[in-house]
Design goal:
The chain has 3 helices and no strands. By secondary structure, it is mainly α. Helix 1 runs antiparallel to helix 2 and helix 1 packs across helix 3.
Length: 88
């Protein structure tokens, strides 16, 4: 077993899940808003799912940790959209 994959504690929320959703989620929104490109949007959503579920598959997070990370990221994305709309 690889020592790098042997997590001694489970952390809540998953930073990888929240970071990937915040970054790729915002990129997906911007890409779709500017180009209406469903393929690029779908690829970015797939990236979020791949990063998030890899945390559970690698046994370094519970699924609830991933959901918690997604909730944190959704708050960040929603807040950034509110700020963007108020500026425009």
């Amino acid at each position: 077993m690889d020592v790098a994959l042997d997590a001694t504690t489970y952390s809540f929320p998953s930073g990888h899940a929240s970071g990937s959703l915040a970054l790729y989620g915002m990129l997906a929104i911007l890409l779709y808003r500017r180009t209406k490109n469903w393929i690029g949007f779908g690829l970015l959503v797939t990236m979020v799912l791949a990063v998030s579920f890899s945390r559970v598959i690698l046994n370094v997070h519970y699924f609830s940790d991933v959901i918690g990370g997604w909730l944190v990221a959704l708050v960040i994305v929603a807040a950034s959209e509110l700020i963007r709309r108020k500026r425009n």
